[in-house]
Amino acid sequence: MYADICQLLNIQYPIIQGAMAWISDASLVAAVSNAGGLGVLATGHLDGEGCRAEIARVREKTDKPFAVNIMLLSQFADDIARVVCEEKVPIVTTGAGSPGKYMEAFRAAGIKVVPVAPSVAIAKRMQKDGADAVIAEGCESGGHVGKITTMALVPQVVDALDIPVIAAGGIADGRGMAAARMLGASGVQIGTRFLVAKECTVHQNYKDRVIKAKDIDTTTTGQSTGHPVRVIRNRLAREYEALEKRNALPEELDALGRGALRRAVKEGDMDYGSVMCGQIAGLVTKEQTAQEIIEDLYQDYLRVLQSITK
Ligand code: TUI
After folding, report:
1. How far is 210 from 42, CA to CA, in rounded Å?
2. Domain check: are 94 and 194 in the same one?
3. Domain limits at 292?
4. Over the chain (310 residues), what is each successive 10-residue block's mean pLDDT?
């Protein structure tokens, strides 16, 4: 079953690194792809030419397949869609919206398209629009999240679609991979564990905070704006939640949140930065190379499968 996604994406392991804005740059992407997974370049913080430059850096570091993620809420989404077509990247993933209007251009450029879907209805629309596979992402994930858990979402999406489904949200070890397979998924997307990869250039304070995090340390802010975001609870998250509770104006919320992800990722500000992170952080306990993470995940996954068939 996991073989279909490896064939579709031309990768060795059914492990896709989740795109993380400001975080998953050429260094992490190339390391994951060189280790046999699928590295995914985040572009939520880039404009079109910034994206082109980062694609060039990935290509300097690897000749393996990689993907570019388009965060569809970005003001530069149109430019980035044009650049990925011009650069003929092999695979595009999308988040925070529907890639429908770009599908024809992607197809014409020979790009495989794998959108994130947070519900069955959205996943069905993406299949109808021509997606090659869909990432069913549960609300355990870090960053921008939907409303449904991975456990409930994945089997319902699998039953509703004919194309491969990749499970995301709350997966960080071989047990999670095996569970995803039991739910009918063809592969997994993993963000939080790759955030602490040695090749990940995020600020050391961010890695240390994720490694220290317990199961209940995240919260979702932004419910009132329609764009809920899972982050580690800190001063910023508490102040944001207090503003939301007293029905603050969108401009006030915006002012507090502006630049917060960059502050956490680049400056290591763990008080007033937005420390996006999945609920599974409690399982992430050490820095490893991307290759160690992938080999560890896959060996652990095989052990789990063997243990249940004994
Ligand atoms: O996109 C993500 N996670 C992200 S993007 C991001 S950058 C950001 N920064 C500040 C505020 C907001 C975002 C951080 N994390 N995950 C994939 C994802 N996609 N989650 C949910 C969705 C989604 C939502 C609606 C996908 C499609 C969709 O379709 C709506 C429609 O009507 O088509």
Report:
1. 19
2. yes
3. 2-201+280-309
4. 88 98 98 98 97 98 98 97 98 96 97 98 97 98 97 98 98 98 98 98 98 98 91 97 92 93 98 98 98 98 91
Tokens standing for 205? Answer: 């304070």
Distance (angstroms) between ligand 1 centre and the Cα of 74 equals 10
DSSP letter (8 states) at residue 145 = -
Q: How many domains does the chain have?
A: 2
**Lookup: tokens for 193:** 């564990």
The predicted-structure confidence for 54-81, as pLDDT tens digits, reads as follows 999 999 999 999 999 999 999 999 999 9
- Say whether both 227 and 91 belong to one domain: no
Rounded to 5°, angle at Cα 75 from 128 and 118? 40
Q: Which atom of ligand 1 is nearest to the CA of 21?
A: 7
If asked whether residues 246 and 292 sit together in one domain, one would say no
State in Å: Cα 172 to ligand 1 middle: 20
Which uninterrupted H or E stretch holds 266? helix 260-267
Same domain, 236 and 303: no
